[in-house]
Specification:
Structural class: mainly beta
Strand order of the largest sheet: 2-1-7-4-5
Strand content: 35-45%
Order of helices and strands: EEEHEEEE
Number of domains: 1
Number of strands: 7
């Protein structure tokens, strides 16, 4: 029996996903959105809302993490380098 096992129901690009960790990395969010992991020359724009404080909404960049709760929403879009 796993102590402390939780599931979080989040929305990524309009689709519900279930995760078992409350902290997600930028790369994990991109992969959950069904995109290949970020690599050199490929960028993604990630926004989120309804996350756990201190920052409930905003933009996520490579290397950052977000603490989620049930109902946290993400939008992941491929971006281009300028």
């Amino acid at each position: 029996m796993e102590a402390g096992h939780h599931e979080y129901h989040i929305i990524i690009n309009g689709r519900e996903r279930t995760v078992t960790h409350d902290v997600l990395t930028f790369n994990q969010v991109v992969v959950l959105a069904n995109y290949p992991p970020p690599k050199d020359g490929v960028e993604y724009q990630v926004t989120y809302e309804h996350a756990v404080s201190p920052k409930h909404a905003g933009d996520m960049i490579q290397g950052e993490t977000v603490t989620v709760k049930n109902g946290t929403k993400f939008v992941v879009e491929p971006g281009n380098r300028s």
